[in-house]
Write a structure and sequence with these properties.
Layout: E1 4-12, E2 17-18, E3 21-26, E4 29-34, E5 42-53, E6 55-60, E7 62-63, E8 66-67, H1 73-85, E9 88-95, H2 100-115, E10 125-126, E11 129-135, H3 154-163, E12 168-173, H4 180-189, E13 193-196, H5 203-212, E14 216-217, H6 233-240, E15 245-249, H7 257-267, E16 272-275, E17 287-291, E18 294-299, E19 302-305, E20 311-313, H8 318-327, H9 333-339, H10 342-347, E21 365-368, E22 374-379, E23 382-383
Parallel strand pairs: 1-5, 6-9, 9-10, 9-11, 11-12, 12-13, 13-14, 14-15, 15-16
Antiparallel strand pairs: 1-2, 1-3, 3-4, 5-21, 7-8, 17-18, 18-19, 19-20, 21-22, 22-23
Helix pairs in contact: 1-2, 2-3, 5-6, 8-9
Length: about 375
């Protein structure tokens, strides 16, 4: 559309919720907000709607029958295109616990997908890579492959980072492993976020990792030692370290609303990161699929390990989980939106490029109904069809 002004009821801007008003878009980038329409500007009329930054998913394994474990650059870009149609404009493709060689290949494929995009590509931006594993424990392995569980290794990480072209932004581990503190501190020195999860660590072990530089918790409540009044565990550590961030899967299956409310009250909404943890089969019909080398069954809005029956991951979108926490009365509409945009971006250290509407930044945004139903997605100011 070139240069135009968005007219909307509300705009979720970094400093405040504003509107009704107008937001300029010029040369595919955001301009200034004003109460009045800029003179002579073409108007994109989104009257009655809320305009917010495009959603940012910092923990997601794939989409539309393509997964990071496929090590397929074309598949990653198909996932990106389909995610954008559903409101997600930035994501961190997330790996699984696999062999070191397979993880390296997955990192290389994600980097290839990113490098092969032209200016005409209409899909969610790859803002980095998240290594979920393989430094986990058997007790809370969840839907990760137990065959490849190992101790943290900075040497392995450096090899993966090389294959990724420096794109790895997050790496998860169980802090009871030997070498965890050294791993955390080494990655912190490189500006890479380390996350605590798939772990039976005690409160003290988790706190030692936080003290060494860990700043995030992997899908809080799921795959970790829970809160107990004599051993607060990892959940207790997440609740009592105000400078850290806690990922949370709010699909209505992984964590119940009352537990979500407890975490939000303990940490504050601005340190709770909405994620999907979506598997590659998300966006597809119900049925049987493979995920991380394991057979899974998608049914009733969730995905389960076929042979064990426990939850394997979600099939939700960011637009859905954002709407859920609002519909459940846990946070306001504005807070829900920020929990799916600026909070995840800040938690992953990618807030300089996504998560907020700021002048000069790529005009990636969503239009939402007042009840937060997704109405449309725009990338670089153009409608995603």
């Amino acid at each position: 559309m070139g240069t135009y002004a968005i007219k909307a009821e509300k705009f979720v801007l970094p400093g405040a919720l504003m509107g009704p008003g107008y937001l300029t878009v010029a040369d595919a980038a955001f301009g200034a907000y004003s109460d009045e329409a800029p003179a002579g500007a073409e108007v994109l009329d989104l009257s009655g709607k809320w305009v917010a930054p495009g959603f940012v998913d910092t923990h997601i394994h794939g989409f539309y029958n393509h997964a990071t474990t496929d090590c397929d650059a074309e598949g990653i870009n198909i996932s990106s295109a389909e995610l954008a149609r559903r409101g997600t404009t930035s994501w961190l493709p997330t790996t699984f616990t696999e062999s070191p060689e397979h993880i390296r290949a997955a990192c290389a494929a994600i980097a290839q997908a990113d490098e092969e995009r032209g200016p005409e590509f209409a899909g969610a931006h790859i803002q980095g890579i998240y290594l979920e594993g393989p430094f986990f424990t058997q007790k809370h392995v969840g839907a990760q492959n137990p065959e490849y569980l190992i101790d943290p290794s900075v040497e392995l990480f450096e090899g993966w980072q090389e294959a990724a072209g420096g794109r790895i932004r997050k790496s998860a581990l169980a802090p009871e492993h030997d070498g965890s503190v050294e791993y955390v501190s080494a990655l912190a020195a490189e500006g890479v976020v380390t996350c605590i999860g798939h772990s039976d660590a005690t409160y003290d072990q988790a706190l030692a990792a936080v003290s060494a530089g860990s700043t995030c918790f992997v899908h809080t409540y799921n795959g970790m030692r829970g809160l107990h009044h004599r051993e607060p565990g990892i959940v207790g550590c997440a609740m009592t370290t105000p400078q850290t961030y806690a990922e949370l899967i709010c699909d209505g299956h992984h964590v119940m609303p009352a537990a979500i409310n407890a975490l939000v009250r303990a940490k504050g909404w601005d340190h709770v990161v909405l994620i999907t943890d979506a598997l590659g089969c998300a966006g597809m019909p119900e049925g049987e699929y493979m995920s991380g080398g394991l057979p899974v069954v998608m049914r009733d809005g969730a995905c389960y390990l076929r042979d064990e029956g426990n939850l394997a991951g979600s099939v939700a979108t960011m637009a859905e989980v954002v709407k859920n926490v609002y519909d459940w009365g846990i946070v306001t509409a504005e807070q829900a939106i920020r929990m799916g945009t600026e909070v995840p971006a800040r938690s992953a250290g990618i807030d300089a490029v996504c998560g907020s509407i700021k002048p000069g930044r790529a005009a990636d945004f969503v239009a939402l109904e007042p009840d937060l139903t997704l109405a449309a997605t725009y990338l670089a100011g153009e409608l995603v069809k």
